[in-house]
Amino acid sequence: MKRHPHAAEAGLTLIEMMVALTISLVLAAATARVYLGAMAVKSTQDDATGLSETARFASDLVGRELRKAGFRNTWQIGSGAVAEFCPSGPNPLAPIQGSNDRVSINPASADFSGGTQTAIANASDVLRVRYYGEAANATVALADCHGYPVAANTLVEDTLYVAADPANNNEPTLWCYTSNPAPATASHPGALPLVAGVESLQLLFGEDSDSDGIVNRYVPWQLVAQAHKVAAVKVSLVARSPNPVALGPGTTTFAHFGGTSAAPAYPATMVLANNDAGAQFTAPADSRLRKLFNTEIAVRNFGYCGQ
What we know:
Helices cover 21% and strands 27% of the residues. With 307 residues, it is of the alpha+beta class. It comes from Noviherbaspirillum pedocola. Keywords: Membrane, Transmembrane, Transmembrane helix. This is PilW family protein.
């Protein structure tokens, strides 16, 4: 009987095992790096998309408010109300009221002063619009800035401003205060945060000084001569992403209305001459994405004073 020798058992040496483990760790680290990089890119893209939506929504909200300024349905109550928002009228309220580069505000006050003050973020401007409600059988009922309907012949003031939201980690937010008394809820009249992430708001008012229907100049509120002659408003806002991003920019300065065009609406020389501190906003180096958004809104109820 012939014996067959058994083959010697073979295994990995310690060096081979160390090499294999090292290669495995390198591959795992590379895979993790690719995964984390992809997640960071996705997070940045999501924040960039949300940032654009924030800027568009805030701009649209300000535009809707401006289009209501000075509205009253004179057909329902007779021609005597046509001068409601005119200087020669019995109650010459301004359809639009502003305040340039405020430090704090009491939105329930006639001139934004006194009482309990709320700190304004980044020397932002304040905008107030006045209008009357529409009848219940109207095709489209007017709503205040909180979305609630305004009763017919009820004068309402909506005031927009930028301030920190203590209920949202002090995120800079576009707020709106409304004087609309109905419905009877805790927020009416009152202020509500509407758009989180709005950091800076600046306004230029287009004044038709010669009553020809064409804007002659754009100025900050303190230089407006007659509020009832404001035919358009330039709105500029800076919005930021909710979270820091891996490749976020450093310190950035945004020039509201300035830009690089040959004839900007509000050039740097005018900014300096009027000491308009809020016209330039320097963002901190917090790795957040930011976007400057500009638009111009026509005042629909402009021009019926005949002055």
